[in-house]
Amino acid sequence: MAPNNSNRGKRNRVNRNATPVKPHRRKPERPRRVAGAHSAQASLKDRFTSWRQHHQDSLRDALQRLNAARASSAMTILVIAIALALPAGLAVLLDNARAITRGWDGNAHLSVFLNMDTSEARQRELAKEWQGTGHITRTEVITRAQALEEFKALSGFGDVLEALPDNPLPPLIVVFPDSTDPVTLRALENRLAKADDVDLVQLDVEWVRRLHALIELGQRLISVLTLALAAAVVLVMVNTIRLAIESRREEIVVVKIVGGTDGFVRRPFLYTGFCFGFAGGLMSVVLIQGAMWWLGGPIDELLSLYSSEQSLTSMTLSSLIILPLFSGALGLLGAWLAVSRHLGDIEPNF
């Protein structure tokens, strides 16, 4: 039986008009994100390496810029050195004065004059009673006869003294204290003056008190001078770093445009300030050592004329280390103040 062509054509027309069925496609899986990870971060080790490398680069850049401007850098360093050498040199001389006079203090003693009618037995009894008590190391008894003989030998008026009807000199006890502190000597002097049979107490080395007072005054003057000149060093560094910032204004603007932080920009200037201060401290050490060497000969000769075994000493090892570090800290402080004040004024204009 022949196929029905009309039905076939009808089916074909129906199939052509039907909506084509799309094959089912499986959606691709998205890559899973690690929980809590929103952005890529550098490791702590990489950050530390970058931080250390930038410090090294900043120090190298500071040294290169100081070397590039040798004349101006040398003048700035010399100003810092002179400002610090003055109080530091005075402190060294003051320490030498303390060491030299420490041996002279042993000659300090009090002369205790007794009443004229005090017997020799009473005089020796008092000397024995005072010895070893109340800051007294030892005592020495000088009777009226001994005092007269010594006065005749030293004064050259022996014939005149022989013509006197009576010995005019009082009995004497020499008291040697165990301390030359002015407060201790004053307390001991007042205590002996109140003792029985004592007419007068005299500190024979009165200059010890004056010397201690002068040394104390010198110490305070050095402290004030140190503070004033340290402030001067900080101001010098503030002005120096300010000029350096102005000369690198365009470079700073470019660094900020590309995302450089204030800390990134600040770091080279801080190293510059520290290098200036540290170099100034080293130069001040050289100046002080040279001055001590130049003054050493005349001062040692002067001390030998006074039969002193002391000699002029230079800076201690701790002072040689502390002074450059202290100067470097002042330079760092000045640089920090200058950068904090002027770096914020430099911003890119869009």
TrEMBL record:
It comes from the Bacteria. Gene3D superfamilies: 3.30.70.3040. Pfam families: FtsX, FtsX_ECD. The keyword Cell division applies. Coiled coil: none annotated. The keyword Cell cycle applies. InterPro entries: ABC3_permease_C, FtsX, FtsX_ECD, FtsX_proteobact-type. The chain crosses the membrane at residues 74-94, 221-241, 269-295, 315-339. Residues 22-35 have a biased composition (Basic residues). It is a multi-pass membrane protein. Its main location: membrane. Residues 1-43 are annotated as: Disordered. GO terms for biological process: cell division. It is found in: Cell inner membrane. Residues 110-201 form the FtsX extracellular domain. Keywords: Cell cycle, Cell division, Cell inner membrane, Cell membrane, Membrane, Transmembrane, Transmembrane helix. One of its GO terms (cellular component) is plasma membrane. Residues 225-341 form the ABC3 transporter permease C-terminal domain. Forms a membrane-associated complex with FtsE. Belongs to the ABC-4 integral membrane protein family. FtsX subfamily. Part of the ABC transporter FtsEX involved in cellular division. This is Cell division protein FtsX. The gene is ftsX.
